[in-house]
Each structure stands twice: as structure tokens, then as C-alpha cells.
Specification:
Length: 237
């Protein structure tokens, strides 16, 4: 994928019409085995922070461990003169949303717990470093004038850590707050999207997706909505 994008970029440089000129954005989907300088170390970190009793963590580990799994560990966004360095790659952290008391109008307690473990921190740093590597490799380096974010002042591990801690974002891909594992495994909805322990209540949105997969999630949300429509229509037909 990266090779294909570099080729498109190179064609543009030579004056040929290419997809790179006409697409607002291109995406690369990578496994850590390709993108990380120390992918084995990353996997060790993932194993050390994942909770083996948690079914979601086990699934995340299995996707991370399998280089042939088609679930990307890292999504690279190529825009016009830009490779995003601020995203959050496939993670082990889970945050939470809880009620704060008996008053239904009270604000909920929300803590996304971003970069709250060693794997998420290292993975996010590796992603940002990999993007610099791309930007400083041919043919991007001949095409692009300079790196403005974070800029070449950022060199040491500590500086990369400070950069990702201050700048990381979810790209609006929030999910997992009403995830779909079994109730015993901490799930909120069953495979029919019904909330455990409540009658006649379904959740149909991104929150039922249990795992962030380093990819845009809107198509999955459409899929969930279509599946919900099928389930509900079947019930009342
Ligand atoms: C700026 C931006 C850019 C994005 N770009 C992309 C992209 O390029 N590709 C991609 O795949 N994803 C993208 N996303 C993410 C994608 O839009 C979301 O993942 C997706 O819309 C989530 O769907 P949802 O149904 O879970 O929630 P939403 O789409 O947020 O739907 C929630 C709905 O509930 C309504 N609502 C809220 N509170 C109440 C209430 N109290 N009563 C009644 N209704 C209520 C809201 O008005 C809204 O219509 C982007 C998101 C943003 C914000």
C-alpha cells in the first residue's frame, strides 16, 4: 500500500497525472511488522498491559499478534502535503462513561483514559516516528518543503512522548462504551443490540463496536444501522 502511494506520488512529481493530485486524501493500512522499528517489543508491551481475563483485550491481542490478520494496526492518512501524526493507533486502553448518581440529568463521568498504558504510549510514538520516516524518504522528501509538525526539534524519546501526549486525538472515532460482548464479559448489548437487563431498549450506533481497528468507522456504523433495521423489521413483520 505504501509502495503504491509512493509510486503515485512519484508519478505526480514527474508531471504525470496521478490519483495523488486528484484525491483529497489517501489512506494506508499497515501492520506493526511493517511500520514499527521494534514490533516485537511493541507486542511484548501489549501482552504485558492486556488483561487476559478480558475478552476484548484477548481479541485485540490476537489481532495485533497475527501479521496476516486483515485488521490494520496503523492507519496513515495522506492529505495534500500532509501525513497525519496525531491519530491514535489500535489501542489496548479502554475508557469509561458512567452515571454520576441517581439524578438522570446530572452530567456523566467520562474518562477516555488516553495513553494510559505503556503499549498505547509506545504505539502512538512509533506511529508518529514512522510518519517522519515516510516524510524524509524518497519521493516524499523531494516533494515536500518541510516538516512543520512536530518539526525537527523533536528528536529524543522524551520529546516524542511530550508531543504525542499533548497532541494525540481520536480523529472522532469514539466507540466501545456500549460494547457487544456477553454480559459476563462486561458487555452492554446482546447481538440483537438489546441492552442486557432492560426490555425494549436497543443501542444502534458506534458505541456497540468493541474494538478500535485503526480505520474509519462510519461504514461499520452504517452496517450496524442496516443490521438493526433488519432485526427490528423482522420482529414486527
Ligand atoms: C468532524 C468529523 C469528521 C469525521 N470524519 C469521518 C470520516 O471521514 N470517516 C468516518 O468513517 N468517520 C468519520 N467521523 C466519525 C463518524 O462521523 C462517527 O463515527 C459516526 O457518525 C458515529 O455515528 P453514531 O451514530 O454513533 O453517532 P452520531 O453520528 O454522532 O449520531 C448521534 C445522533 O444522536 C443525536 N442526539 C444526541 N443527543 C441526543 C438526545 N439527547 N436526543 C436525541 N438525539 C440526540 C445527535 O444529534 C446525532 O444525530 C467523523 C466525525 C466527525 C465529528
Amino acid at each position: 500500500m505504501v509502495q503504491a502511494l509512493l509510486q503515485l506520488c512519484s508519478q505526480a512529481r514527474q508531471g504525470h497525472t496521478s490519483l495523488y493530485q486528484y484525491s483529497g486524501i489517501c489512506y494506508g493500512f499497515l501492520k506493526w511488522q511493517t511500520a514499527a522499528s521494534k514490533s516485537t517489543r511493541l507486542l511484548q508491551l501489549a501482552r504485558s498491559v492486556a488483561d487476559p481475563s478480558n475478552v476484548i483485550d484477548r481479541m485485540k491481542l490476537s489481532l495485533l499478534s497475527d501479521p496476516t490478520s486483515r485488521a490494520p494496526d496503523l492507519q496513515v492518512v495522506f492529505g495534500d502535503g500532509y501525513i497525519g501524526t496525531r491519530g491514535y493507533p489500535a489501542n489496548i486502553t479502554s475508557g469509561y462513561v458512567h452515571i454520576s448518581g441517581a439524578n438522570a440529568s446530572a452530567k456523566p463521568l467520562i474518562d477516555p483514559r488516553y495513553i494510559s498504558n505503556a503499549f498505547d504510549l509506545e504505539a502512538t510514538k512509533e506511529a508518529a516516528k514512522y510518519l517522519r520516516k515516510m516524510g524524509t524518504s524518497s519521493p516524499f522528501k523531494e516533494l515536500w518543503a518541510k516538516e512543520y509538525d512536530p518539526g525537527f526539534d523533536t528528536q529524543t524519546d522524551e520529546q516524542w512522548e511530550a508531543y504525542v501526549r499533548e497532541n494525540v486525538s481520536t480523529f472522532y472515532h469514539l466507540l466501545e462504551t456500549c460494547a457487544m460482548p456477553t454480559k459476563e464479559n462486561g458487555g452492554v448489548v446482546d447481538p440483537e443490540l438489546k441492552v442486557y437487563g432492560v426490555r425494549n431498549l436497543r443501542v444502534v450506533d458506534a458505541s456497540v463496536i468493541p474494538i478500535m481497528s485503526s480505520a474509519n468507522i462510519q461504514t461499520a456504523v452504517y452496517g450496524i444501522a442496516e443490521r438493526a433495521a433488519e432485526i427490528i423489521a423482522k420482529k414486527y413483520r
